[in-house]
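Bug #2210: token dump truncated for Transglycosylase?
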Amino acid sequence: MGLIIAIIVGGVAGWLASIVMGRNASMGIILNVVVGVIGALIGNWLLAPLLGFGGSIQEFDIGSFVIAILGAIILLAIVNLVQRGRIR
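Reproduced locally. Full output below:
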């Protein structure tokens, strides 16, 4: 059950991050899920110790969801930097 929750939360987090970063038109459902899950891993590794909340994406709570969105935004900013040489 945890894997299904991780995919759903990752998909929504990736979708929201792609809207914030202006890449929604170029991303599909699969890429949104991938960005969300990898963003959650980045967020839990980088941001959770700094902010003091977060946790496993396999158990849904608001803190983990916010961390997943912030991590996905960081990931998309890095991708924008590599692709275009600037953050959009």
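Output looks complete on our side. The chain has one domain: 1-81. Marking as cannot-reproduce; reopen if the truncation happens again.
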